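Handout, page 2. Input:
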Amino acid sequence: MSTARQGGKMLQLQSEETANNEKEARAMPEQILQEVRKDMGKVAILISILAVVLMVTFYFSLQYNMADIDNKVSELYSMKDQVVTMEERLTELEKLPQQTRNIIYGNMLEELSLKASYLSDQLEGHGKAQVKEAQDLLKQAQGSLGK
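Output:
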């Protein structure tokens, strides 16, 4: 009987083990799901931290690029001012030959005016009046070159 008892106890133990295994098998998917949920939470936190790091990196790289673009635009404006200054200088240089000619012509007219003045002192009568008239015309011409 002891063997029968032992055999009965073994069957009972086996049936309990089978029941426990079935409970564990049923509990196993739930346990796995809970572990997966915990792992997915960790993955989600990791992804969100990575996203924040990437956004901060992207923001600062954009800030640096915008500052660089701002500096280049400032340089362009300063170059524009330099170009305007150079254009003004070129315009003055283009006028220089005309100014030089005007100075030379003015000196010639001055010389003619002095000669006419000398002649008017030497002449008398009608010739003197005509030379004075010529002298006045020379002075008018000198005035128009001075403008």
